[in-house]
Amino acid sequence: MMRNSAIGALLAFFAAAGAAHGQSFPAKPVRFMVGFAPSGASDITARIVAQKMGEVWGQTVIVENRPGASGIIGADAVAKAPPDGHLPLVTSQTSTAVATSLYSKLPYGVLKDFSIISVMGSTATILAVHSSVPTSTFAQFVALAKAAPQGMGFASSGFGSVSHFGGELLGLALNVKMVPIPYKGESPVLTDVIGGQLSFMFASLPLAMLHIKARKLRALAVTSLQRSPIALEYPTVVESGIPDFEMVAWQGLYGPASLPKDLVARINADISQALQTPDVNKRLAQQGIDRVANTPDQASAYLKSEIAKYAKIVKSANLRVE
User: Fold this and answer.
1) Structure confidence by residue, pLDDT tens digits, 252-277
2) How far apart are CA 187 and CA 39, in angstroms?
């Protein structure tokens, strides 16, 4: 009887300690870890949200950029961080859903070593062609691609990037050959597509719209499941005839795997509320980032679906990195 009472008291103690995590957080400054250089979508999202969370939490919230290895270095730091919520990770699919299949050796297991808190936002790409390409609709582009016996070369902002996988996924969906031509960054890609050296690319929507409005590029379809608020005149690839086609850069918020569930729920609730404020929503929209702000369960389900999608593309295109 004494032993059972002691065990019961111990369990009650740990339960109370767990509940206290959410109430006492944050106990010190919070650092949003971003595994990429400043100015990218993950960095922009982190900075907009960090500023608002400083107000909400009454603590200093800063962004720490630790670029390298497609975001893997920063992600690994969070995977090994103390599970107290003070070092969350803001990262795109590159270091999570993509890396799981693309890299044969990762210092972490995405589903094993992280608690996914939320998907905060996403940015679509848009299929854009040079003005000399004889097509003005997605259907005409598909016909052109199927008629190219040697395949179509397309520009990407780098190996493993969302623009790279956009072309690979399209080739897989149409059962045609797409030949990626990787660049180091999106600006030189746009320069060459605008100049006519390459015929098409999947471009980041906010950046591409500047050139589309200037009639330097012709847009055919966006890669999000719904039309983008900043490009409502352009249909989605789904509307254009390919079911379930989605290729977006999305920014997830993660903590270490052993982050207490009550703390995950607390951070998720605070972040979701912040993302829905008019000022944050407006600043994200101005950068072409669509607010998502889903629950931990929804975010986890989405992550798993993205891992499966990229695994299929990686296998089909033989893209494995040793």
Assistant:
1) 999 999 999 999 999 999 999 999 99
2) 13
**Position with higher pLDDT, 19 vs 30:** 30
Domain 124-222: top CATH class: alpha beta
User: Does position 205 have pLDDT exceeding 50, yes or no?
Assistant: yes
Alpha carbon distance 113, 195 (integer Å): 45
For 28-122+249-317, which CATH class? alpha beta
Residues 185 and 158: beta-carbon distance below 8 Å: yes
Could you write out the DSSP letters of every residue in 11-72?
A: HHHHHHHHHHHHHH--SS-EEEEESS-TTSHHHHHHHHHHHHHHHHHTS-EEEEE---GGGH
What's the one-letter identity of residue 311? A
**Structural domain spans, the chain:** 28-122+249-317, 124-222
Query: Rounded mean pLDDT of 121-150?
Result: 93
- Reduced to 3 states (helix: H, G, I; strand: E, B; else coil), residue 263 is helix
Equal CATH topology for 28-122+249-317 and 124-222: yes
pLDDT in tens, 295-305: 999 999 999 99
